[in-house]
Design brief:
5-stranded antiparallel beta sheet; binds coenzyme A; Aminopeptidase; alpha+beta
Length: about 180
């Protein structure tokens, strides 16, 4: 097991997951607005399973989808970080940057602040040559974060999500990239 990196920014801490994150994490994954660009909100069991995958990824790689904590009051806000894509989609095997915040944490620049620090970790200590991000083609809030952290649209790599049927409004996915 690699020691989990802890990253601090001006207002935020990106850290390994803790048991106390489980309940606020379940609540945000059950929020239809947070999960608007995913097929469905998550059940408690699905949320727990994803928390375990995030935790294991950080334990395995040192970096991962870190739990995001506000420094000022210790409030859990969601996750931001880096992930080696393991599931069977067109971008499998590549390192992605991703984010999901509870609704109360939107509109304050937290995703951009944490993503900037994650990028620096990916291109610095991890020496990744390229980091991608992908999302449903209608998820403008997520693409705005990509743009703010200096990513550009790698349109030739856009893909249809294999788990969503033809005609599903979330099927088309865009791929953005940043080169080291
Ligand atoms: C994607 C997501 C993280 C974006 O959140 P966000 O709050 O729009 O993004 P940021 O945290 O970077 O905040 C930027 C906003 O904060 C504002 N802001 C306020 N105070 C700020 C500050 N001190 N510094 C920077 N920005 C600040 C910015 O002006 C911007 O507002 P605008 O969108 O009205 O222009 C959020 O919508 C989310 O979690 N969605 C659900 C999950 C999801 O879809 N994830 C992506 C799937 S791939």
């Amino acid at each position: 097991m690699i020691e989990a990196v802890k990253i601090k920014t001006e207002r935020l801490i990106l850290r390994q997951w803790q048991d106390a994150d489980r309940d606020p994490w379940r609540a945000m994954n059950a929020d239809p607005e947070v999960m608007r660009y995913f097929p469905a909100p998550l059940t408690a069991d699905e949320s727990d399973a994803l928390m375990t995958r995030c935790r294991d990824g950080i334990a395995q790689h040192g970096a991962g989808f870190w739990a995001l904590e506000r420094m000022q009051d210790g409030q859990f806000l969601g996750f931001v970080g880096l992930n080696c894509i393991g599931h069977d989609i067109a971008v499998k095997g590549q390192w992605e940057i991703g984010w999901r915040l509870a609704r109360h944490a939107w509109g304050q620049g937290y995703a951009t602040e944490a993503a900037t620090a994650s990028m620096a970790h990916g291109f610095g200590p991890m020496a990744l040559p390229r980091i991608i991000a992908y999302t449903a083609s209608t998820n403008l809030a997520s693409m705005a974060v990509m743009q703010r952290i200096g990513m550009t649209h790698a349109a030739a790599e856009d893909f249809d999500h294999p788990l969503l049927p033809e005609g599903h409004p979330l099927r088309r996915h865009v791929v953005w990239e940043k080169i080291a």
